[in-house]
Amino acid sequence: MAPCVYKLLALSVFAAGNIQAAPFTLPEAIRLALQREPELRASGGKVEAALGQAGQAGRWPNPELQLSLEDFPLQGVGWSASKRLAGFSQTVPFPGKKGLEREIGASGVRLSEAELALRRAETVRAVKAAFFQVLAAENLVKEGSDLVRAAEALASAARKRVEAGAAPEQEGMRAEIPLEKARMDLADFRRDLAVARRALATLLGRPELGEAAVEGTLTQAANPALLDRLPSAELAGYPSQKAARANVNRAQLAVRRARLDVYPDVTVGVGVGREAITNESMGEIRVGIPLPIFDDASGKRREARANLAVAEAEAEAAQLRLLREWNSAAERVRTASEQAKTLRERVLPKASEALRRMQAGFDEGKYLLTDLLETQRTAADARIGYQQKLLELNIAQAELEALLGKLNQ
Fold first, then answer.
1. SS3 of residue 75 by DSSP
2. DSSP string spanning 322-385?
3. Is 65 helix (H, G, I), strand (E, B) or coil?
């Protein structure tokens, strides 16, 4: 059995028995969401409905069985003297109508399938963003815990200096202030983590997993392969673009179909029977043609042309909107990646080294407590800022991956 299956089983055991669940990974979270997301199930139902509609669109209407009694007297002999006929009639659509209706049905299937794919892409993107929020929140809790321990150590050292008479009482009180601030920050980080976990669990359709941990790491640098793509060529395959093209195609077919509405369908019928008085067999042929006197279908043609104009405008708007999303996400990836690199390679090493030297100098009596507290806070802010930049980078990169159809990366 694959490891991911074991983990999914562990999550199920957690849900049933309320015991600690094993951490789950991003692919497992995506799999859970795709299995349980109600809007995805609704979109799948729309595909089924479109398939049924498409299958029905090309069918002719059923023939009608007709029985008739003609020329019977109202008094006297009665029914036995009537002319009796039996037959059927069939409405024959004007050539081209049913073919276009079948094409419209097929276009509707493509539209619903594209909408399902779009909903799937949006779900995966949302799961990735929520998953990264949990990872970043867990990292911030670790940073906050480290900051509390460092503040506790500093406060303890300050109290010992005061007790030994080597420092005024104000120094011990001053050291307590950043300790309380660090504890408050840690409480905020833990609250944010609980909120992020519950949000992810709700998105997965499993609220009972709100306490479950996740397993993974945040990407620390942008993927060059994503940023080097030509968006105009790559975005053509995005589901929203496919849906827009399918909608335009369906509207074009509807215009062609509306042009044929002015040409009536013909109803033909045949029948056979017997003349009651002479007892002779007889046949009958009927042809019915509607006359387009009061309804020339001009309203349908106008409606179809307007719907085509709307579909074309919506397709153009969707293309521009998608390009804006791409440019925005790509710029955020570049910016967050550069800032994270600066923090990782330049700011964090300098902050750590400055804190180490300041701590050593403070222990030797070279620096004041205020200097050490300020350096400690600067280093902590740099570490927290680095985690926030990694979160921005990962969320923006997840948007690019979704736009390129790379949903499971």
1. coil
2. HHHHHHHHHHHHHHHHHHHHHIIIIIHHHHHHHHHHHHHHHHTTSS-HHHHHHHHHHHHHHHHH
3. strand
| pLDDT at 74 (0 to 100) | 63
Q: Does residue 275 surpass a pLDDT of 80? A: no
Strand order in the sheet with 281-288: 64-70, 83-92, 266-274, 281-288
Output phi, psi for 287, to 5 deg: -135, 125
Distance in angstroms (rounded) separating the CA atoms of residues 105 and 111: 10
N-term to C-term CA, the chain: 22
User: The pTM is what?
Assistant: 0.80
> DSSP code of 404?
T
E strand intervals along 9-127: 64-70, 83-92
Chain segment 144-194, per-residue pLDDT in tens:
998 888 888 888 877 777 777 766 777 777 878 888 888 999 999 999 999
Pairing of β 83-92 and β 266-274: antiparallel
> Token pair of 253, please?
């077919």
CA distance readout (Å), 68 to 78, 87, 89, 272, 286: 15, 9, 13, 10, 13
How much is the mean pLDDT over the chain?
A: 84
- Alpha-carbon span 260 to 296, nearest angstrom: 10
Q: Say if residues 273 and 84 touch (Cβ distance below 8 Å).
A: yes
CB 287 within 8 A of CB 267: yes
403 three-class SS = helix
Q: Can you list the domains of the chain with their CATH numbers?
A: 110-262+300-403 (1.20.1600.10)
pLDDT, tens digit (0-9, with 9 covering 90-100), for 330-359: 899 999 999 999 999 999 999 999 988 888
Question: What is the rounded distance in angstroms from the CA atom of residue 360 to the CA atom of residue 362?
Answer: 5
